[in-house]
Amino acid sequence: MVGDSDLSRIGISLPQNLLDKFDGIIGLRGYSSRSEGIRDAIRSYITYYEWMSDVKGERQGVITMVYDHDHRGLMQTITEIQHENRETIQSTLHAHVNDERCLEVILVRGDGAKLKDVAEKLMALKGVESVKLTTIPVN
Asked: 123 and 84, same structural domain?
């Protein structure tokens, strides 16, 4: 990984609402610039990715997911993914957060790589706001 002293300049495009939320967080957390906030966010993303990559062996856990239930075809696709992974998914809990958003909690058990695969399939869906996999070793 490149050290903080070896800086590279990049350009990114973001939707205005995402940038507005990010700027709000930067202000609340006391960052001196967007760049500082983006560096911190990227470090967190890398740490989470590395942690997710280390999910191995027999695991028990939960996948928490927030999504827009009005997004066309999304609920059907989520259901299909869950049915395709019946051997891994033990139970689900569905809650309506508000008129547009739903929270789903999925209890999973199985090989860590398989659990990660299910979570990543859900993460990739348009209309899904967030997915988090949390596991513990069974042994």
From this structure: yes
Say whether both 41 and 66 belong to one domain: no
Query: What domain range includes position 108?
Result: 57-137
Q: Which amino acids are annotated as binding site for Ni(2+), given as ranges?
A: 83, 94, 96, 102
Q: Which residue has tokens 């990559």?
A: 53
Q: Which residues are annotated as a binding site?
A: 83, 94, 96, 102
Residues 6+ apart with CB under 8 A from 48: none
Sequence-separated (6 or more) residues with CB below 8 Å from residue 105: 62, 63, 64, 65, 92, 93, 95
Locate the DSSP E strands across 13-127: 58-68, 89-96, 101-111
Q: Which tens digits make up the pLDDT trace of 91-114?
A: 999 999 999 999 999 999 999 999
Q: Do 30 and 91 have their domain in common? A: no
Where the chain has pLDDT below 70, the residues are: 1-5, 51-53
